[in-house]
Amino acid sequence: MIAVGASVGAHCQPCLVYHVGRAKDLGIKDDDIREAISIGHLVEKGAASAMRQFAAEVLSGGAGNAAGCCPGGATKGCCGER
């Protein structure tokens, strides 16, 4: 069920088809699968909200560098920079 929700959150359509199929093969009820999909949508919504807020901070100059993307404070070659 975690894989079902994660597939939704990751926008992976082939993954969702596979994991829903496996859940049904295991006898998991449609209501439980729907609940996992719903939770995946909630996670997706939270991530999108956090990114909107972060993007606004970056635009206003208040976010600094993307430390999570640039381990060790590296700047050259980080996050696609060349």
Describe the protein in words.
There is one protein chain. This protein is mainly α. It is built from 3 helices and no strands. The chain has helices spanning 2-9, 13-25, 30-60. Helix 1 packs antiparallel against helix 2 (13-25) and helix 1 runs parallel beside helix 3. The longest helix is centred in the middle third of the chain and has 31 residues, at 30-60. It is elongated, with a radius of gyration of 18 Å. The N and C termini lie far apart (40 Å). The model has no long low-confidence stretch (mean pLDDT 86).
Fill in the keyword field for this structure.
82 residues, mainly alpha, elongated
In a nutshell, what does this entry contain?
By secondary structure, the protein is mostly helical. The protein has helices spanning 2-9, 13-25, 30-60. The model has no long low-confidence stretch (mean pLDDT 86).
